[in-house]
């Protein structure tokens, strides 16, 4: 079985150069900016700046620039899309990533056990005793993702979810969009090659996961999935028949039981691999971390091990 990537607990030196990247469309922009400025003002030892994104690639570009300039810490203030872009800009960089979760689901923040309030998350970001955890990323046809790549129904309901709905309804927006997407649901044939084996499956969606989190603490589609294990997780949902729904719900319950988390989930179509190739019977929309990517009939996904260093809470010593 894969061994989860260990967390490092030795204290880190206090960061000297910090760039905070703020998505003004996520959360309450002014409250987050005020909290950042107040925290930075209390630390005269820091050199800091706050940049706000205006266009789609700004967060990645700002992060890559910070890494090239030798910044010690880059703080992503936004939802999972912003965090993914910042992580992409920091890939293979010594700069650490801190996360201030301000989005709808905040899947990675929950996966890593990060605080869910701005003040607590900011305190962790500036805490010299915080731990650093190396987190994998995935790559599909040259584009990076942090959580998962989805094709079929997974992509349809993400495309159906508007920013206005997410702001107004929070996580419920995804449920409403998922219901609307049922009207356009069509089965496809997926030919999946992983670990030297090829399987052909008919299903409604195929997901390639780095994180199998669903935005609710400790709840995952596959309990043994781990963002630091050097593997991607393949999940295919065949249909909305009761047997398939029962298996999926059983996998969610399975993920809540600590003594089962390192065992394969009770899903019929689930694999782990470093590289996965998927061929579809027809062209379908793909999303990466919930964002539109492209329409495709064929793609290859591969893991990028230990791509980014993330500040996480220091592990409590075992008595």
Automatic annotation (TrEMBL):
Its cofactor is Mg(2+). The keyword tRNA-binding does not apply. It comes from the Bacteria. InterPro entries: ATP-NAD_kinase_N, Diacylglycerol/lipid_kinase, Diacylglycerol_kinase_cat_dom, Lipid_Phosphate_FormReg, NAD/diacylglycerol_kinase_sf, YegS/DAGK_C. Keywords: ATP-binding, Kinase, Lipid biosynthesis, Lipid metabolism, Magnesium, Metal-binding, Nucleotide-binding, Phospholipid biosynthesis, Phospholipid metabolism, Transferase. The keyword Ribosomal protein does not apply. One of its GO terms (cellular component) is plasma membrane. One of its GO terms (molecular function) is kinase activity. GO terms for biological process: phospholipid biosynthetic process. Residues 13-144 form the DAGKc domain. PANTHER family: LIPID KINASE YEGS (PTHR12358:SF106), SPHINGOSINE KINASE (PTHR12358). NCBIfam families: YegS/Rv2252/BmrU family lipid kinase. This is Lipid kinase, YegS/Rv2252/BmrU family. It comes from Methylomagnum ishizawai.
């Amino acid at each position: 079985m894969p061994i989860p990537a260990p967390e490092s607990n030795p204290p880190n030196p206090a960061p000297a150069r910090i760039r905070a990247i703020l998505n003004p469309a996520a959360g309450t922009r002014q409250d987050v900016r005020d909290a950042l400025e107040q925290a930075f003002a209390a630390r005269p030892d820091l050199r800091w700046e706050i940049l706000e994104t205006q266009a789609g690639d700004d967060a990645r570009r700002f992060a890559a620039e910070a890494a090239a300039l030798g910044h010690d810490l880059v703080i992503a203030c936004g939802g999972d899309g912003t965090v993914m872009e910042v992580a992409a800009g920091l890939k293979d960089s010594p700069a650490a990533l801190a996360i201030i979760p301000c989005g709808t689901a905040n899947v990675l923040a929950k996966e890593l056990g990060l605080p869910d309030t701005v003040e607590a998350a900011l305190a962790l970001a500036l805490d010299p005793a915080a731990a650093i955890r190396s987190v994998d990323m995935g790559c599909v046809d040259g584009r990076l993702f942090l959580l998962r790549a989805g094709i079929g129904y997974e992509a349809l309901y993400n495309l159906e979810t508007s920013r206005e709905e997410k702001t107004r309804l929070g996580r419920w927006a995804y449920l409403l969009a998922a219901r609307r997407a049922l009207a356009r649901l069509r089965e496809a044939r997926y030919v999946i090659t992983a670990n030297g084996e090829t399987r052909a499956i008919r299903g409604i969606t195929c997901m390639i996961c780095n994180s199998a989190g669903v935005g609710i603490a400790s709840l995952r589609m596959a309990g043994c999935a781990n963002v630091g294990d050097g593997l991607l997780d393949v999940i295919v949902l065949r249909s909305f028949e009761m047997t398939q729904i029962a298996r999926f719900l059983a996998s969610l319950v399975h993920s809540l039981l600590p003594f089962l988390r390192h065992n394969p989930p009770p899903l019929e179509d689930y694999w782990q691999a470093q590289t996965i190739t998927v061929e579809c019977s027809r062209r379908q929309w793909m999303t990466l971390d919930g964002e539109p990517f492209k329409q495709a009939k064929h793609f290859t996904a591969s893991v990028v091990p230990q791509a980014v260093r993330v500040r996480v809470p220091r592990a409590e010593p075992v008595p």
